[in-house]
């Protein structure tokens, strides 16, 4: 994260730990030291280049037709409609359940009874652990879904690129390969399916719980949901059937996002956590 001239200067120096004030970035053909201050342009030099390169007409020309679109855009075939025409075959954009189930009447609240623990985490679980934006692992539930739709591995793309498809993002929830779940034997996006003791991918376990009508919760330590705010870090758990997250503390925005999706954010009393209370599999 630096200005373009600084990027060039670091590249010339060949290292980023250089002190530009006291160390030369290179030597000239005569062996003389060349410092950054020797090649850095003055304000007047920069202004002269800008004046000779940019004209008001350039901006007028671009913004005069910016709303007209390109020829390719304007030639797209569309049908007049007040609503978006969802295409079920698309692996990028899909009509999510929380649009399909939206009603004017608020749903009645239900108790959380005999809920299974889908995952039990420690401290500092970030929104990237909950909803990663990176590459889709080749053996992940999301990868298996894409393969079933005829998408081959070179075209998997990333979770970030496919964030318009709830089927992908639900399967990508808790799919970070570095996530540590206390209900799994090793690091990675797996958990114990309590009724049988099987080790399953987290989303696969959640879907099986849902099929059998079981409610789910998440246990966590401190700073749950820290990091950059991501809407799918709340939407994904909702689609997995999570009813509550019980943590020692929450990142403020993520806590609000959970509540907005109807997931109850609860905090342990000071000094308490899932381990010292002996909570492991069922609430």
- Order of the strands making up the biggest sheet: 3-6-7-8
The CATH C-level class name of the largest domain: Alpha Beta
Largest sheet: 4 strands, parallel
CATH topology of the largest domain: Aconitase, domain 4
Q: Report the portion of residues in β strands.
A: 5-15%
Helical content stands at: 25-40%
User: What's the end-to-end separation, in Å?
Assistant: 46 Å
Uncertain parts: none
| Secondary structural class | alpha/beta
CATH superfamily of the largest domain: Aconitase, domain 4
What's the gyration radius in Å? 26 Å
- CATH architecture of the largest domain, please? Alpha-Beta Barrel
How many separate domains make up the residues? 2
> What average pLDDT do the residues reach?
94
Helix segment count?
12
Per the principal axes of the C-alpha atoms, what is the gross shape?
extended
| Count of distinct strands | 8
Describe the structure.
This protein has 283 residues and is an alpha/beta fold. It folds into two domains: 4-59, no CATH class; 116-267, Alpha-Beta Barrel (Aconitase, domain 4). 31% of the residues lie in helices and 11% in strands. The protein is built from twelve helices and eight strands. The protein has helices spanning 4-13, 36-39, 43-53, 56-64, 71-74, 97-100, 127-130, 141-148, 166-171, 202-211, 232-239, 252-260; strands at 26-27, 33-34, 116-120, 190-193, 198-201, 216-219, 242-247, 264-267. The protein has a four-stranded parallel beta sheet with strand order 3-6-7-8. It has a two-stranded antiparallel ribbon with strand order 1-2. A hairpin with a 5-residue loop joins strand 1 (26-27) and strand 2. Helix 11 crosses helix 12. The longest helix is centred in the N-terminal third of the chain and has 11 residues, at 43-53. It is extended. The two termini are 46 Å apart. The relative contact order is 0.12. The mean pLDDT is 94.
């Amino acid at each position: 994260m630096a200005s373009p001239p600084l990027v060039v200067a670091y590249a010339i120096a060949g290292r980023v730990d250089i002190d530009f004030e006291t160390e030369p970035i290179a030597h000239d053909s005569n062996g003389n030291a060349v410092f950054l201050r020797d090649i850095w342009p003055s304000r007047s030099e920069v202004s002269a280049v800008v004046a000779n390169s940019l004209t008001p007409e350039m901006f007028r020309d671009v913004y005069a037709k910016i709303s007209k679109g390109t020829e390719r855009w304007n030639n797209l075939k569309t049908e007049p409609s007040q609503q978006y025409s969802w295409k079920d075959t698309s692996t990028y954009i899909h009509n999510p359940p929380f649009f399909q189930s939206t009603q004017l009447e608020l749903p009645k609240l239900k108790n959380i009874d005999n809920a299974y623990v889908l995952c039990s985490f420690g401290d500092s679980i970030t929104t990237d652990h909950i909803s990663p934006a990176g590459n889709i692992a080749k053996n992940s539930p999301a990868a298996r879904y894409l393969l079933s739709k005829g998408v081959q591995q070179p075209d998997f793309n990333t979770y970030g690129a496919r964030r318009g498809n709830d089927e992908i993002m639900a399967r990508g929830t808790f799919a970070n390969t570095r996530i540590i779940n206390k209900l799994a034997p090793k690091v990675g996006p797996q958990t114990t399916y309590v009724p049988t003791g099987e080790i399953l991918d987290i989303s696969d376990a959640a879907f099986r719980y849902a099929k059998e009508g079981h409610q789910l919760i998440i246990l966590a330590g401190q700073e749950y949901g820290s990091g950059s705010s991501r809407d799918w870090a709340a939407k994904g758990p909702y689609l997995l059937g999570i009813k509550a997250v019980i943590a020692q503390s929450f990142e403020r925005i993520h806590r609000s996002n959970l509540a907005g999706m109807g997931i109850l954010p609860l905090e342990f009393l000071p000094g308490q956590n899932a381990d010292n209370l002996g909570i492991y599999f069922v609430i």
